Amino acid sequence: MSFINKEIEDFAVQAFVKNEFKQIKKEDVLGKWAVFFFYPADFTFVCPTELEDLASKYEEFKEIDCEIYSISCDTHFVHKAWHDASETIRKINYPMLADPTGKLSRDFEVMIENEGIAERGSFIINPEGKIVAYEVIAGNVGRNADELFRRVQALQFVAKNGDLVCPAKWKPGAKTLKPGLELVGIL
Questions:
Q1: 47 in catalytic set
Q2: How do beta strands 66-72 and 33-38 pair?
Q3: Active-site residue (options: 47, 66, 73, 166)
Q4: Cross-referenced PROSITE patterns, in alphabetical order (predicted)?
């Protein structure tokens, strides 16, 4: 089953963001681009490398009107404890969503039921609340914030310029394609 164009479900969860607790709801996500970045757990090995990588690009994501939401099945209290204990995690300014019931992880079908943790899933959500790209990978391989950022930019471009498409490795300013019979099979 594909998640493309699936609208995200209603939700309300606690989050740790900018050294305070805050509730985040579906309504908070709507109206701008968003990345839901599921990871297995706080206080682990690969996860902090990914979260730090995202933190280093967070301002660039914000400049293109895209919010980052990291999500694990830990509580918001555990997110705060990790923040307080880790110099790496203190660099994070985006919301760290708490999913201790696994509702979000199940809604996005990344829950590993027998372990009570989430897979490494990245979901790009458009301003209407629909999933326009996603990737789920094995827990022992970290993701790349640069590639995730490039994907958001490409999706924003095609949303704005519906008659054009972005080829592989496209970045803003690079050549795009206009689908048509003359391009079929020649590139």
A1: yes
A2: parallel
A3: 47
A4: THIOREDOXIN_2 (PS51352)
